[in-house]
Amino acid sequence: MALSLGSALATKVYLGATEVSLAYLGATQVYTSVPPSFLLDDYTGAAAGYSLRNLSSSWTTSDVVEVRRSSDNATSGFTATEVSDGTMLAWVGTGGTDNGFVTTWYDQSGNTNNAVQATTTKQPKIVSAGAVVVENSKPALSFDGGDYFQDTFAVGTTNTGFIVGKTQVGDAFLDDIAVVNGNNIRTLSATEVRYATNSGAGGSTLVHTVPSGTWNNQNLISYISDGANSQVGVNDSATTGSVASPTNVTGVTIGAAQNGNAGVTGTMQEVIVYPSNQLANTFNIEANINTEYSIYTQEFSEEAQNYFNRLNGAGDTTYTAYKQPLANYIDSLVALGGAYWDDMESAASFVGVGIQGVTVPLRDGMAIATQNNFVEGDLNQLTGLKGDASTKYLSTGVNEGSLSINDSSISVYLTTDRDVTITSSYIGGTIGVFAIVDNATGFRSRHMSSSLKTNGTSTAVGGIIGISRDNSSDYDWRDVDASGTNIDTSTAQGNRAVEVFASSGGSFLCSARLATYHAGPALNLATLEGLQDTLITEIAAI
Description:
It contains seven helices and 40 strands. A hairpin with a 2-residue loop joins strand 18 and strand 19. Strands 26, 28, 29, 31, 36, 37, 38 and 40 form an eight-stranded antiparallel β-sheet that branches. The N terminus is likely disordered. It is mainly beta. The longest helix is centred in the last third of the chain and has 17 residues. 13% of the residues lie in helices and 36% in strands. The protein has four domains: 35 residues, no CATH class; 92 residues, no CATH class; 145 residues, Sandwich (Jelly Rolls), CATH 2.60.120; 235 residues, Jelly Rolls (Sandwich). The N and C termini lie far apart (60 Å).
């Protein structure tokens, strides 16, 4: 069927021989083959989802709210389309005394966990003085400090919530934005939001600080209730910490405390609750919400923010000062793709992070490292992690046997040299097969072979020590300020875990200080070193 501008839209549109997914006539979209994306379809398992937009493809023809009009107290339900296209407003009335109040905020998850308020004086407005309440040009519910919804469904002590709202501003105010199973989400002051368990101002708490003036605006507030892995945040920043599991498990209240006190004065547009820890999906869920409401400018790429979310999840609270250099480094790796990002087996930064972050891989899906015996005092955020040549090493989670004999590489970035009086390994698997070792003799390496190659006696620091093989006859090496190629046929493959500060199962331990490591396919070591030079320089500048 050809594109028709006068009747129905086409089923397919082509530019030459190429099918296109979108077509416009000027600024008007006249064709799309791309189905709309719905948050609850993409991120399933929600316990409840309240919104004035469609959150699910199964909800497009269902009511999102039931409204009571002030003129005669009649009630009627309205879809998301009817809320925004004037249908609801026409029903309520456009006069200066015409108001519409929400009696039910329908749950779009399919679980029928509807938020209900039967008391007329406690129902939030959706139409005020003959006009739809809006926030940032999108329909909203207006709460006056005494309005709230309640539902009695329970989601368990582990849950995640996302709330789009705007609260009043004052030097000292205390608004409960939502309460989920004993978890209070509340504005604590003009510069703080609190996640508190067991209702009220007491109990176990986690506080996230925001800039003064934040509460003047629409915000995306999120929380995770999961004991030691709890989190509370506003827009694109969050604080992670330990909060005791709530014991007061009573249900969900939106807009006030469980007893109806400490109510919100402001607006609310969306509340979504999951009965699980959604840290892994938080960035994407928040991106979906932010795209809809244009709440904040996304500061970092998805890949960088995903890394930060996982640092948060690991309990690292010290990396935030170094977000920009870390994001720049990740974005540079993403741009190169392939062996530098998509196919990388394991890689981490030891600079710009706390001790909890040294085992967090740069990319979600990489092997997760484990560390042995390192403590906070071993880490310098500017120069990296220091071994002791005795008990401290890190296992990358990669087995040398899983790496290709003729397409593999390993490296570390050296910032402080090791003790040359002993033989030690910077990184490797089986020391007689795949490792980089050093002593007074100098830099020596094996790469999936039985030959031990000596490559000089450099004592320089501030660069990569690494090996990379992309064929069966030779491999490249780099020793900070020197590099070359070893003619060495690949003949063997070990079966040990690739370790940093060690090799051969925690042997040949190293006392060097390292800024990064990687293990994966063959790559250009000089290129990688250039990116890491920039990372360390930018971190040092902060």
